[in-house]
Amino acid sequence: MTTRSLDLRALYRSPNGIPNGRPNYSNYFNPTVDRLLDQGLGATDETTASKYWKQVHWNGQTGIGTQGDATSVWLVNLNETYLVSKCLDIGRQKVPSQRHQGRLLGNITEWKIICNS
User: Fold this and answer.
1) What residues have CB less than 8 Å from 32, skipping those under 6 apart?
2) What would the pLDDT profile of 34-58 be if each residue is shown by its tens digit?
3) Where in the chain does DSSP place strands (E)?
4) By three-state DSSP, how is residue 112 classified?
5) CA 111/CA 91 separation, integer angstroms
6) Of 108, 103, 101, 83, which Cα lies nearest the Cα of 93?
7) Quick one: residue 27, left, alpha or beta (phi over 0 = left, psi -120 to 50 = alpha)?
8) Do the Cβ atoms of 62 and 35 come closer than 8 Å?
9) Distance separating the N- and C-terminal Cα atoms of the chain
10) Cα–Cα distances in angstroms (integers) from residue 94 to residues 86, 98, 107, in the given order
């Protein structure tokens, strides 16, 4: 099992299909994606597995990608420099609890637009 397959399963496999009953982070549920994840995880070679991973993103009708359910959005690269508009109050930055969360996103739920136009 590759890191990519484990990440896909942890993020997008319906909660009842994850070992030890651990739910996916967003409680995403799509039976077609579940089936494709299972087929990819059960593949005997990387070429076959990659076919299923691509279909998890979009199989022509559904998937986790922008053409399908659009399950996530890429906000930032945390190792870059960002300028913040004077109309966005990002509050006091917190110490990150996880490496991937970073200081910039640590309090995103508290951000406020402070300009009227």
Assistant:
1) 59, 61, 62, 63
2) 999 999 989 999 999 999 999 999 9
3) 88-89, 112-113
4) strand
5) 6
6) 103
7) left
8) no
9) 50
10) 20, 11, 7
